[in-house]
Amino acid sequence: MPGPPGRAADGMAARAWRLKQPSALPGFGPALGYTLIYLTLIVLLPLAALVLRAAGIGWSGFVAIAADPRVAAALRTSFGTAFAAAGVASAFGLLTAWVLTRYRFPGRRLVDAAVDLPFALPTAVAGIALASLYAPNGWIGSLLAPLGIRIAFTPLGIFVALVFVALPFTVRTLQPLIGEIDRELEEAAATLGASRARTVLSVLLPPLLPGLLTGFVLAFARALGEYGSVIFVAGNLPFVSEIAPLLVIIKLEEYDYEGATAVATVMLLAAFAALLVINLLEAYARRRLGFG
């Protein structure tokens, strides 16, 4: 049965008041419409056009291109080095973010600004700089050459370039979270007799784990699509140091649009699956640990 007229009127007035709250942003309807239009025009339509173009090849043609040994090798190189680079960037990004947030030292602001250099630096410039440093006659490469270690023009060079471009994503993701951790929690753990390792594992890492996974996702996505800095330091040898984005460019230059579309679609689907799994793990960590 309907409630008392007075209570219903109060409920309608409360809902009307919520809808009329002043806000700098437009209402829910216009904001949702703009969001859907933006996503459709900028994200969904280009991706749909790519998938439809790949579908025009036919399933057998698509499988034949995706199963080509050169394509498979390029995909393994891209995904393997991107995953490894994201892991290393997450570990060192956590350490860098902790130092920049918790400690005060001369030149800290300069170091903090230098973290953003990969964002602002053109990727070609980064690639040339890395190749100059790690080439056999470069500053660092000449020191490693007598030890039999080659970085430039090998898959290891790809890894170094991807860590370079991915590191800022983990640092900037973790810095605000580290700043929110109360120092009294560390002091309480020390008072209760916890060792430094126990304090890090039980007190500090749990609230940082969701952000660490987020930084890993961002670093992985950035490294997977990196092109400019890699081609200068990788050597670009088929079956050795050729990445999938470069193979797409090569096929386009050869007017093999079907092949380029197929490789791009395989990369899109594989990247979506990898990011979906990582995001599910992140959501699970947030629910499990009670953060978010």
Task: Explain what this protein looks like in three dimensions.
The chain has 14 helices and no strands. It is mainly α and 292 residues long. It has a single domain, classed as MetI-like (MetI-like fold, Orthogonal Bundle), CATH 1.10.3720.10. The longest helix has 34 residues, at 69-102. It is globular and about 65 Å long.
Please describe the biggest sheet, giving its number of strands, its sense, and whether it closes into a barrel. Answer: none
Q: Tell me, rounded to a whole number, the average pLDDT.
A: 83
**3D shape:** globular
In the CATH scheme, the class would be: Mainly Alpha
Number of strands: 0
Output the radius of gyration.
Answer: 25 Å
Unreliable residue runs: 12-17
**Oligomeric state of the chains present here:** single chain
H/E element string?
A: HHHHHHHHHHHHHH
CATH superfamily: MetI-like
CATH structural fold name: MetI-like fold
At CATH's second level, what is the architecture?
Orthogonal Bundle
Strand content: under 5%
Structural category is mainly alpha
How many domains in all? Answer: 1
Write the layout of secondary structure elements.
Layout: H1 5-19, H2 28-55, H3 59-66, H4 69-102, H5 108-114, H6 117-120, H7 123-134, H8 141-144, H9 155-180, H10 183-191, H11 196-224, H12 228-234, H13 244-253, H14 257-289
Helix pairs in contact: 2-14, 4-9, 4-11, 7-12, 9-11, 9-12, 10-11, 11-14, 13-14
